[in-house]
Design a protein that fits this description.
- Helices cover about 45% and strands about 20% of the residues.
- The chain contains 7 helices and 9 strands.
- The strands form 2 sheets. Strands 2-3-9-5-6 form a 5-stranded antiparallel sheet, with no helix packed on it.
- Helix 1 (about 1-10) packs antiparallel against helix 4 (about 40-60).
Amino acid sequence: MLSAALSLWMCTIWFPWDFIQQMNGLFRLITRNIQLPWRFLGVSSFFLTVTAICLAMLLQDMPNRSVCYGLLAVICAVALISADYFLYDFTRCAPSERYVDAQDLDSCYGGDAEYLPEGTPPDFCADTAPVPGSLLEITQHRFEKGAHMVTCSSLSEEESHIDMPQLPYAGYICRDVQTGRELDISLDVPGKVRVIVPASYSGSFRLVFREPRHWRAAEAFSVLCLLFGGIWFWNIQRRKSDSMRRRSSHE
């Protein structure tokens, strides 16, 4: 607990970093390599996790099970709420980065920024509306829950297209809303996802990004850890109950 509190204090502006770096050359070198105090958040998370586990193990010995489960629920709620607020505050306050060419994209910045496909125009963020091809009219467009919904009609007897304001990453899927038919997609247009509209098409389609299944490996691992943790906790409780019953029978 003390280690967690110390590492949390080291993340703040109230920790005497300025005084430490002025002590001697060794401390100056150490603080210079640390660079960003918030890097101690990882250390804090580790010690806080160990503290929470130890507290949960101590709560198991409480005679009042209702109080025990209530306190465990409070620990879980505090962890979830604090993590949710951290992500919310980060997405609201974190500065955005723009990379115009390869000169701006080095190893220092590439680790925490969005990858931009080659040929992306610098002003790609200014385009927020779909751009129809020849003899094609868009009557409605809305973006909700991460998907583009477009209603259009084509007067052409040949294939046309609509350029959607999305970066051309592999993984986009476009389907007709009424029939479920999949429409072809081209990723060759810089800064756009091009939907190929069939000849004389009239209807609505939905464009959405579907991540590869292996991206969900982290979530699957978390679910497995939670499942095995629950089984482990249940097994401990069952053993304690069996031990108490055996003691009662001997008495």
